[in-house]
Each structure stands twice: as C-alpha cells, then as structure tokens.
C-alpha cells in the first residue's frame, strides 16, 4: 500500500512538473525562431543566382568575345543538361538522390564508421544537395561543425526546390578545374563542342574532374582522370544507366582533348564595346543625370563606382550584346594600317561608320593593339587641322548667308587684332591667290579664306553648329579664329570627327553612331537599346553644296590619291602644324570613314606626308 501511495505521489509530481514544463516551453517557443527563419537570415535560399558568361556578337551572329572574370560558366537549364551527365553524377555521388530529403542517414552512418576506423575524417557521406550548399554557402573545411551546417542547409534547400532544380544548380555549380564551372563550359573548353554532343565516354571523363579538380585535371593528370572515368562507367553500369554494350564501347573509346581557350577576338572593337556599354547603362538607368547633378567630386566618384558595379553585375548575369562589327572591314583596317604605317614610332587609327544605319562597323585602337589599352580611336583627341573646315566654316557659311556655290572669297593674306595681338594666318608656303571660288578654297585647303569666312559667320554662331556633335574636348577656350584651321586646345577623337561627317551623308541631319545594336538577357529578352533620334544641323540645300565641295576635294584637290570607284565619294584632309597629325575623313554612298596618323608623343611626321598614308588607308578600306 505504501509503495502504491509513493508511486502515485511521484507520478503526480512528475505530471505536475511536466505540465509546468510544457507551460514554460510554450511560452519560450513563442520567442524562439524557426530553423528555417534562422537559416534564411544567414543565406538567401529562396533566390540562388549563379554568375554566367556574357557574350558579344558581331553583325553575323558570331561570338567575338566571352566576358567573365573568376568563373567561366555557361548555365544550362535542366532540360538541356544531357541525361548521361546527370546519370554519371547520380551513380557516383548520390544514388538515393531522388529519395532522400537532402541528407542520407545511411550514407552518414557509413561515413561515421569509416572515419572512426581511421580516427580521422576520411568520408563525408554528402549528398548532391549537401555538396551544392557547400559550394554555394559554406567552406570546404573537414569539420563536424561544417558537416552539421551542411545537413541543416540541405534539408532546408529541399523544401524550396524540386529535385530537378537542385541537380540543375549542382551541375552548373561544380568546378571542372582551369577556371571552368558547369558541364557546358567544361565541354566547350576541353572538347570544343556543346555538352549535348558529348559521348558517354567523354561525359564520364568530364564527370571525373569535380571529385578532385587538381588531381583529375584533364590537362595535367589525364591518366588519373581516365582511371576515375573507368570507375564512373562501372558505377553507371551497376546502376543500369548504361548497357553492357555502351559500357564496353565507352571503355574502348579514346579520349582526345580539343582545348578551346576563351573566345576573345577583335580587341580594338571589343574594348570600345565595353566603354559604350557602360555609357548605355549610364544613360538608360539615370547615372548620367545623377553625375550631372553631383555637387562634389566625392559624390561623383561614388556614383561612378555604383555605375561600375552595376555594369559588372550585368556581365555576371550572362547578357548577350549584339553589335554592328563587320569582321572583314575590321581586319582590313588593321592590315592596311600596318602596311601603310610601318614605322615603329608612328601610330594610326581608322573608324568606319555605316551612315545609313548609324552604326560603327569598324574601329581600331592603334598598331598592335591590346585589349583595354589606351584606344586611339575614341580616347585620343587631336587637333583636326583643315578637316574641321567643312563643319565649322563652310557649312555654317552656306546656311547663314545662303551664298551660291560659285561664290568667291579672298585668299590673300589677312591680319586680325586678337586680345591686343596680331593674328595673321597664311596659306601653305605663304602664297596669295586673290579672289577664288569657294570650291577652289576648300579643295586646295587655303587657310586665309577659312579664317575670313569664320570671322564673317561669327565665332559663337559657327560653334553653335558644332553643338549637336557633342565634341567632348571642345570648350569656350577654343572660341577663336585659329579654330578655323583646326587650332583647338585638344581637338576631337577620330570617332567623334568621323561621326560628325555622317551629317553630309544624311541630308544635314546628325545622329550619333553606335557599336551596340541591343543588349539581351540569356533568355533573349531585350534589356537595352540606344534611343536613336536625328537632329537637323543644316538644310538639305546647304548639305548638297557641301557634298559638291567635298567631292571636288577628291577629284582635283588635296585628296586625289584617295579616289575610289563609287557612285559618290568626297571628304576633307587635315594637316596640323609641323605635320604632327595627318587626317582624312570622307564618305561614299554607304560608309563614312576617318583615318588619323601621328605619334603618341607629338612630333613631326613630315617625312610621311608625301606618302600620304592616311589617304592610302582610306582608299584601301573604301575600295
């Protein structure tokens, strides 16, 4: 009886304690966060984004540049991953993948026993899901603490993603040595073909690498890779992923690597595309407006830093940039420059624009140009010499005074008082020609008529006509009579000056020329394009007169050596003081092309003047 009372008493006490404990636990549970919420505070399991290679294409749809930094990856959706690749990883890494919930208790138990026998961590027992979270969120340290985190993360990941989504992420995440991530990039790099064309033997060979990327590096340890490939094929056979016949054929097949390095063609053009892409983002996403409103240099630097980060983020997302590059003209420009300017200390740049579509089809950065070096096509402002006369002098004169093309102008010496000093320009050689037709003045590039015309038009009025061209290095300090002869403080880049000349091909309308046609995401959705809008600079009547004058320059003027057989051709030469720069910008019925020749460190190239390399390059390009 006493034992019975004692038992009931203890039971009552335990029951009361249990009730009290449950009340306390219930109160605490309200304050405790769920495991899912704790993990999601550490990492974002609901949105996993992998970096992807971006591609730049030419006008023919061919890839000219792959853009990536640390991870060379071409992301494949699940339905495009070859089944033989999935089978290889399931057979060797996680045969119960489609059954477990992120971790495999049997595998873990087996790993613990193996580790206990060896008194060290020899096996991990990790599932594909665990390996994925390790690659995405954790380190590769062999500790039980990391292993526990791995299991918890994997369990949560399986709540958010289907098995197909997990294997898709896994196969696009794993490392294949030599900076390669994912099966598609691996197939293209090691075998120079898409993964859909891999044989069973090749798929198993590549699947060997991620287990130990250094040890199974196909470039350095191909024999080791081959041994693991044979083991993988055996596992695939045991799991009935391949037949006996497929197994034997794969074992007998010779593995021949066909390494294809990163595609990186046309460095001159691609360098410019990178610069233009940054400008496109700056314009499209409001960075330019923020920069214009920045009140301090520090604020400008912060905005510029944000812009650069945005550009890099887009490149990591795997964008596709369609360009107007004409590979034939690009290569021809480079070859022609080398042929016509063999001197090691003399540089040159050529720009070819399709003025019908207002596109940059070719642009060179200089002889022996290396990607992202100083680019003479768009980063090198130089004084334009007489090549500025059609834009700053003659077209404004026709537009404001509506003079006939047969008009004459005084080509004798002249002097002006400028800031209390005499400014007395002279023609080449000091010659005086009296009254000459405008056609003669331009085609022989007489200096004194140009200065007289600029004075008559008015300096500010003439420079207003340059405003639509957005010459980035032209300022009010250039507002003087000497600018009629190209005497600018800095001048224009070859791209800027050539682009301005497209006005003569478009009836007096100006529209900037671009290399980028469109930017799309990896699924083909267009993200960015340039907004193209023409700006009338002068009338059709003025433009017709200018085209006549420019054609005279080529027929019987300073550019006779640039003549080509075309329905129309015209242009203007430019030579700066002491022969520091040689220019020719001209147009045909389809293209507007500019050529600059000079030295980076300004000095005379008079010895090249008689050879006229600028005219020869232009002629070879337009011929």
From TrEMBL:
Reaction catalysis annotation: Preferential cleavage: (Ac)2-L-Lys-D-Ala-|-D-Ala. Also transpeptidation of peptidyl-alanyl moieties that are N-acyl substituents of D-alanine; [GlcNAc-(1->4)-Mur2Ac(oyl-L-Ala-gamma-D-Glu-L-Lys-D-Ala-D-Ala)](n)-di-trans,octa-cis-undecaprenyl diphosphate + beta-D-GlcNAc-(1->4)-Mur2Ac(oyl-L-Ala-gamma-D-Glu-L-Lys-D-Ala-D-Ala)-di-trans,octa-cis-undecaprenyl diphosphate = [GlcNAc-(1->4)-Mur2Ac(oyl-L-Ala-gamma-D-Glu-L-Lys-D-Ala-D-Ala)](n+1)-di-trans,octa-cis-undecaprenyl diphosphate + di-trans,octa-cis-undecaprenyl diphosphate + H(+)
Pfam family, one: Transpeptidase
Glycosyl transferase family domain residues: 61-236
SUPFAM superfamilies, sorted: beta-lactamase/transpeptidase-like, Lysozyme-like
GO cellular component: outer membrane-bounded periplasmic space; plasma membrane
Keywords: Carboxypeptidase, Cell membrane, Cell shape, Cell wall biogenesis/degradation, Glycosyltransferase, Hydrolase, Membrane, Multifunctional enzyme, Peptidoglycan synthesis, Protease, Transferase
Location of this chain's protein in the cell: Cell membrane
Gene Ontology molecular function: penicillin binding; peptidoglycan glycosyltransferase activity; serine-type D-Ala-D-Ala carboxypeptidase activity
Gene Ontology BP annotations: cell wall organization; peptidoglycan biosynthetic process; proteolysis; regulation of cell shape
Penicillin-binding protein transpeptidase domain mapped to chain residues: 349-590
Annotated family: In the N-terminal section; belongs to the glycosyltransferase 51 family. In the C-terminal section; belongs to the transpeptidase family.
PANTHER family linked: BINDING PROTEIN TRANSPEPTIDASE, PUTATIVE-RELATED (PTHR32282), PENICILLIN-BINDING PROTEIN 1B (PTHR32282:SF11)
Name listed for the protein in its UniProt record: Penicillin-binding protein
Organism of this sequence: Halalkalibacter alkaliphilus
Lineage, top ranks: Bacteria, Bacillati, Bacillota, Bacilli, Bacillales
